[in-house]
Design brief:
elongated; single chain; 5 helices; 90% helix; mainly alpha
Length: 166
Amino acid sequence: MKEGLKATGAWVLIILVLTIISGALNMLIAGGVWAGVKIYPFLQLIMNITLVVTFLIFAPLSLIRRLKPLVGTCMVFASYVYGVTLWVWSLLLTYAVWGGGAVIIGLFLMGIGVVPIAMLACVVKGSWQVFVQLVVLAALTYGIRLWGTCLIANHEKQQNCTVEYC
């Protein structure tokens, strides 16, 4: 009898702990979605301005040798603006299409899992236009980051070559 009560008590404790963890995760997800809804319009505006500045100002300036490290750094920073916008948009899409469970799975996939889950949700739902927009924004994020990193690395490489052979 005593062992039966201990086993029942252990199961009640396990269920209570899982319920508390689940409630905390749900509050975290709901709070994150609420914050995402509030900041997404501003992120979109900042991203659009950054996009224009990147291609109309930084791209031409990247041709000037002296400015390459500065422009590269600015491009890497701009890529983070694109990345944060992509992540928040993906969070909101995942939550809207598949709910909090999918968001939790995405967050457990190194935090960035909401992006591929949002893409998968768009494919399953048949929202091909949104899927393409997500892919383009992801490519833009990593493409601009790579471009900026290459500008910095090439400038450092040229500086090392110049110093060594002087």
